[in-house]
Write a structure and sequence with these properties.
By secondary structure, this protein is an alpha/beta fold. It folds into two domains: 72 residues; 168 residues, no CATH class. Helix content is 50%, strand content 14%. β4, α4 and β5 form a beta-alpha-beta unit. α1 runs antiparallel to α2 and α1 packs across α4. It is globular, with a radius of gyration of 20 Å.
Length: 302
Amino acid sequence: MLDFLPGFLKGIFSFLIYTLNTLVLCTVLFSVALLKLIVRVPWFKSVCDRILNFIVSCWISINSLSSDFFNSIKWDIRGLEKLKRREWYLVLSNHQSWADILVLQRIFNRKIPMLKFFLKQELIWVPVLGIAWWALDFPFMKRYSKQFLATHPHCQGQDLKRTKAACEKFMTIPVSIMNFVEGTRYTEEKHKKQKSQYKYLLNPRAGGIAFVLGAMEDCIHNIINVTIVYPEGADSFWGFISGRVRHIIVDIELVPVTRNITGDYFNDIAFRNYFCLWINELWRRKDHLIERIKNEKSIGKL
């Protein structure tokens, strides 16, 4: 372990390994994805999907080994033993840093099906990774502002159509659909601007997850409610790979999907109101949990 190295050196070496790992495995991934695109036989596409998922799992494992080699992080993971690899899940989490994605990939790798994110359409232009996400069937979403929709009404509902198409693909093989419900990373500035009703969280956005639950109610029987806490404070991606993050706590709660949280969110007003109350209550409990964990760590330092 090279945790004794200066932070900037650990960051440089870690980044080089991440980059090399990505370039090598993406070369293999693109080859399999090309075969999947050319051979339009259902069983062959299914085999390719499993190979693609295995490649991603190897990529995550190598990244995790690199992190362990350069950085000494105390991991406190709670509730992981309840999860299965052959189930469909909707994964909900609070969001504080780009490091959250590395944390989630690490703790869930080979424990549940591969995490798949709904991505902004602009991210398809990210070098190497954009094509990799496309090859892995990550759905790219284009969000329209209210002003744009007012002048281009024909674009109304396009994001829902894309979500529905993605959900149909997700039904063929177990996946874990990842959603940062707050829609953006937490900052004090955003918290004040939103006038958030929570102490440590931004207000949750209900529409996206309600649509996924409604579209995939026959597959998704459990929600994984994830709470990530950095006792010394969240840091950036660079801070994570250069060793500034020393302690990470992740609490995992399995929430059953019941009939009262699957419905027509966009056309049934009564259901929409109920679902908003439900997600706000889930977020209220998460906020209290974060406060309790932070208080435990503060007491432990006395």
